[in-house]
């Protein structure tokens, strides 16, 4: 079912990031804008979840009215809706926690805009309907996380942030190369199209292209590295203890 309002969980944190940049240094207004944006996102997602069709079909919106699989698809189903709602609630808890735990000097810096731009990347990751825009969402999220990881600019933070940045750059390079190879194999990066191709192959249709499963393992490697899944978790114990608790909670 078409619902163009589902773009709001991306627009709201982006607007909050811009507004808190313009209000930099005015903590009361920045906090008010931030809390309002996150609460509005959580409330909107709850409404969307309650309004999802009972037959399990998702809400979707095609950016620029381009048809799938050529256009950018934004999709909300029950799973992504729940993930977005939970992410908003966790983000709100971490955000409010920062008011009393984050050093005022650091909070007056770029903490507020970066927090919301990171949320924008997270929300886009859950809403995107194709693999390339998942890559874009990851990069938006990661660019904000690189700066948040250096909050305070201590020597220890910078040394461990370097490791975090390098590992994610390697992961992102593999990700975009894998996306290019996948598009060359099947001619689409749309999740619905990819699911259809795999389902038809499993039902006895045309077999999957040579190397398709190897690419799937490659993507598993990329996501495991970014999520610090064992045994690719070696960067996390060094990195997380160097940043304030509210930021660590958000990352986790």
How would you summarize the topology of this molecule?
Blueprint: H1 8-22, H2 27-51, E1 59-62, E2 73-76, H3 78-101, H4 104-127, H5 131-149, H6 155-186, H7 191-202, H8 212-227, H9 236-239, H10 245-251
Helix pairs in contact: 1-2, 1-4, 2-3, 2-4, 3-4, 3-10, 4-5, 5-6, 6-8
Descriptive overview:
- This protein is mainly alpha-helical and 252 residues long.
- 71% of the residues lie in helices and 3% in strands.
- The protein has helices at residues 8-22, 27-51, 78-101, 104-127, 131-149, 155-186, 191-202, 212-227, 236-239, 245-251, and strands at 59-62, 73-76.
- Helix 3 runs antiparallel to helix 4.
- The radius of gyration is 19 Å and the shape is globular.
- 32% of the residues are buried.
- The model has no long low-confidence stretch (mean pLDDT 88).
Short account of what is shown:
The protein has 252 residues and is mostly helical. The protein is built from ten helices and two strands. The longest helix is centred in the C-terminal third of the chain and has 32 residues, at 155-186.
Distance between the termini: 33 Å
Helix content: over 70%
Helix-strand makeup class: mainly alpha
Report the biggest beta sheet as strand number plus sense, adding barrel if it closes. 2 strands, antiparallel
Radius of gyration, rounded?
A: 19 Å
The stretches of 5 or more residues where confidence is low (pLDDT under 50) are none
What is the ordering of alpha helices and beta strands? HHEEHHHHHHHH
Strand content: under 5%
Shape: globular
The count of helical stretches stands at 10
DSSP E strands, number: 2
Mean pLDDT: 88
Widest sheet: strand order? 1-2
